[in-house]
């Protein structure tokens, strides 16, 4: 975890003239004038993969800033709740730089001027594919995406939804710049082949879960020549709906940090795509910080009606004696003893009181 740091250039990580792989980190609560979470500048070419970049702040580029003839590959990250006092709440690409963004969830970021989610300017280029840009805010222009100053952005198989700004809530650009959007879900609509304007039907956006519920118009609506991991036509957005089985389980926590003696709220989402009712058993376990397994409940039997989606919220008590550390909350659905339809899990931290 990279947290609580402050600097002028690069609060969490600075890449200057280097090309590192930045993989699997939590980069949170850092601050800087430029690049609150990560900055790459001076001919840097980093690969930024599977990180959580959240709650950082900066004047420019609160989450990730790519600047000064640099290029970054940014794949499968969560970039959320970062705040820029000027431009580029989530991502800022500036001054003859380029970024390839794929599979990212860019949500809840803010900018007091332009580009709540993404800001691209000054002869820079960007490609955005298979990503979700949602619920970002800019006070002036480009709540989701802002592009100006002889720059260009290409968007495909993505969702731009629920963003807000005085001008261009989803997309804003000046006359010297261009943006091409195709096979994407854009609130308010946007010209381009395969584009739609329809509620993406997220699992629980209010709790930060931007996966798709069955029935979402974004499922199987991406470019017809691109495929998801299950072999079906690509979905729009960062999270494809896995169609390998007809029963699906999602777990959505209220929070990922709790205190001993507190409660951990979890929403279970169960989906039955079969044309008949299906019996299943649910088993829930917690993986302890030192590797032991605590059986929390189950296996308990349930029957889901045909073509059915249900959500249930549960509060789990955290023992007052629970040691500090990182835990894994894991549930699975199936038929004992060996059939597993689906499973899901998330990590949470028991923090010091």
UniProtKB/TrEMBL annotation:
SUPFAM superfamilies: Pectin lyase-like (SSF51126). Pfam families: NosD (PF05048). Residues 25-125 form the Periplasmic copper-binding protein NosD beta helix domain. This is Periplasmic copper-binding protein NosD beta helix domain-containing protein. InterPro entries: NosD_dom, Pectin_lyas_fold, Pectin_lyase_fold/virulence. Transmembrane segments: none annotated. Coiled coil: none annotated.
